[in-house]
Write a structure and sequence with these properties.
By secondary structure, the protein is an all-alpha fold. It is 79% helix and 0% strand. The longest helix is centred in the last third of the chain and has 30 residues.
């Protein structure tokens, strides 16, 4: 593929999925600047690794969510080490008012997603991520399997277990509320 064809293909992928990747980070972060930075970092990583992207291995959305997961994990690790503070004080582009307002609206819109992630906190990490990718991000289970690097059958098992555990959590909450009202 020629450079201009590759750039056009990447632009199509970016335009189709930038909203989903932004929402992914908006469910995890409440600071618009952090959401913007993580989204940008994800797409910088994506464009630099685009020559190795193979759609035969899975759709672009799965590939991007895999990159977003690794970007967020790196962000958490850097934050734990304090490196993020140094980076943020350095060369980040400040958001203008419109960008800030748009990201604040996206973050606010993801409040129910953050609440669900809090409920899922008791689940094993891969089950939690499977539920998020399928039920919040809208990926098909096979796309989520690619993003998480697990076999499709394992994805179905993880989703089944996570759903059963989540039902138990909700049932316990409903029972506790009923007991409080008595």
């Amino acid at each position: 593929m020629r450079d201009h064809e590759a750039l056009a293909a990447f632009e199509r992928i970016y335009r189709a999925h930038v909203g989903a990747i932004t929402r992914f980070f908006a469910r995890r972060c409440t600071e618009p600047q952090v959401v913007a930075d993580l989204t940008a970092d994800t797409f910088v990583r994506a464009i630099t690794s685009f020559p190795t992207f193979d759609e035969a291995k899975g759709p672009a959305v799965s590939w991007l969510f895999g990159i977003a997961r690794r970007t967020f994990a790196a962000h958490l690790e850097q934050s734990r080490r304090g490196v993020e503070l140094v980076r943020l004080a350095g060369g980040r582009r400040e958001l203008d008012r419109d960008e800030l307002a748009e990201l604040e609206a996206r973050i606010d819109a993801e409040r129910p997603g953050r609440a669900l992630l809090e409920r899922l906190a008791s689940l094993p990490e891969l089950e939690r991520e499977a539920v998020e990718l399928v039920h919040l991000a809208g990926l098909a289970p096979k796309e989520a399997a690619v993003a998480l690097g697990v076999p499709k059958g394992a994805m179905r098992t993880r989703l089944y277990r996570a759903t059963a555990r989540l039902r138990a959590v909700v049932d316990d909450e409903l029972e506790a509320r009923a007991d409080e009202q008595v």
